[in-house]
Amino acid sequence: MGSGPTFAQDADRSVSAMPEGLWGQPEVNVPDGGGTEQVRRVTVPATMVYDYTPGAAPTRFLRGLQEGRILGERAEGGTDVYVPSRGMDPVLGRATTESVEVGPKATITTFCVVHIGFGENAPPPPFVSALILPDGAAVSLYGTVLGIDHTEVRIGMRVRPVWKDPAERTTSFENITHWEPIDEPDVSAEELKGHM
């Protein structure tokens, strides 16, 4: 063992107080309530704004969404199409060099039913949030499934994207407002192995 203090020795040592002003919160003047009920919860709205520099491959994907197309990329010698591409095939370790349009039809690989409302753009609960595998892609995208009762959604269900009007589109995932079921047979769980 080293020559440093043991846990038992550490327990006997005093710890100095934090310097004044290093950590803390402003004092809140709360008058004596004299029978007033204790505050149990305070709601504090908070937002976070992110600036994101997408890079070349994600830019191609986002521009494709603006055009109403789902674009992925494949590396030379590879078979998997990654959506959205990050510019590299994570398995082969090579740059993606070929742009490939996938979908628009897709398959639900897994999902959850959301029972708690959040955000002003979210549909009223309950609704389905799903991982959706576009035809021809190796990986799934997140999406909201509407146009069907949440109790009828299932793994393997076939869906298609519902797009914003072309005049309203930007370079955003929100160009696909949601996914809706299509009248095609479900894809079997066996066929979805490796995509869940």
Write the topology of this structure.
Elements: H1 7-12, H2 56-66, E1 70-75, E2 88-89, E3 94-102, E4 106-114, E5 127-134, E6 141-145, E7 158-163, E8 176-181, H3 189-192
Describe this structure in words.
- The protein starts with 6 loop residues before the first helix and ends with a helix.
- It has three helices and eight strands; from the N terminus they run ααββββββββα.
- The protein is extended and about 75 Å long.
- It has a domain at 56-192.
- Helices cover 11% and strands 26% of the residues.
- The mean pLDDT is 87.
- The relative contact order is 0.13.
- A five-stranded antiparallel sheet has the order 6-5-4-7-8, with no helix packed on it.
- The chain is α+β, with helices and mostly antiparallel strands and 196 residues long.
- The protein has helices at 7-12, 56-66, 189-192, and strands at residues 70-75, 88-89, 94-102, 106-114, 127-134, 141-145, 158-163, 176-181.
